[in-house]
User: Fold this.
Amino acid sequence: MGLLQELQERSGHQCELCASKDNLSTYEVPPISTGGVDGTILICSTCKEQIEQPETIIPNHWRCLNDSMWSEFTPVKVVAWRMLHRLKKEGWPQDLLDMMYLEANELRFAEATGDHLDESEKIIHRDSNGAILQAGDNVVLIKDLKVKGSSMVCKQGTAVRRISLDADNAEYIEGKVDGQHIVIVTKYVKKL
Assistant:
């Protein structure tokens, strides 16, 4: 059974957030680490557009979270939590957040993108040119780098695919080079 079929079966062929039955598609919940059923939800085009383009958010559409926040499925709860945090200035979402409960691992997943932080509190990772880096981006090294604790030297021009961000420090990203997982300082990379 494919991912789409599993999600359709799990959701009853409706959006897992607003219960719409129109224009459904899969949505991998960032940061995309688990994928599969445990990291993906089935959502309608309206929800997807407003999640991916925050400037298009229509607050009343998201009153549906009053129901979907109680889902038994982690990725649905995570997206509901993130959207409630984006909307908390509206007033009513804060009441729902006060009622919502996430297990420790679910809360770590939900906080991974920083949606719960105000703009002034967010850690923003930037490359050597000032471009904003996001989890899953591809970068290239702009100088030769010695890897601490090994004899490995990463050469200038080496591509690092699908980076992950250090949640505590804007100067560090992580990625794999020649099969080895390393930490890289952001001032030595350029976004592809």
User: Anything to note?
Assistant: The helical segments are 3-11, 45-52, 65-68, 74-86, 92-99, 104-111. The longest helix spans residues 74-86. The two ends are 35 Å apart (CA to CA). The chain is about 25% helix and 20% strand.
